[in-house]
């Protein structure tokens, strides 16, 4: 008869918890997408939420790595770096956009001294002049004709349209804005028109 040897009791194996890398990876993805979007002009300003969330998730991921609950340190650091760079680009775009808007607003509000001038040999012309949406009309029988105004808006020089009458002759229109000639044109003959736009 054989003797049975009792086996020692089997100790349960200690299974190490698997690292959970989801938060650090999420921070990387948010930071990378936010960085790419932040590089696009105008649209880049909407990357704020992505890069801020990328910083938050990456920071939480680094804390989890420190506590040995995650092991994707390189990816998490890359996510934090991409998020910080993206945030810097977003801030830069916001500053540049604000400066551009302020410059445009200041230029639209600036008052310019404008001189409209019509010269030539014609003795019967119709002159339409002024800001684009606020024009005035005059019948002129003797040239040269000039008018000084102060204009605001995008097209400070406004417009100057001269239509020759039945007697014909030559006409030249000229627009001067703040002492600088911005447009001049010439036409000749009965019922012809010449148009100057002061850009």
From TrEMBL:
Domain of life: Bacteria
InterPro entries: MmpS, MmpS_C
Name of a matching Pfam family: Mycobact_memb
Segments crossing the lipid bilayer: 21-40, 46-65, 77-101
Cell division among keywords: no
Keyword Cell membrane: yes
Record-level GO cellular component terms: plasma membrane
Keywords: Cell membrane, Membrane, Transmembrane, Transmembrane helix
Cellular compartments annotated: Cell membrane
Similarity section: Belongs to the MmpS family.
Protein name: DUF4190 domain-containing protein
Species name: Crossiella cryophila
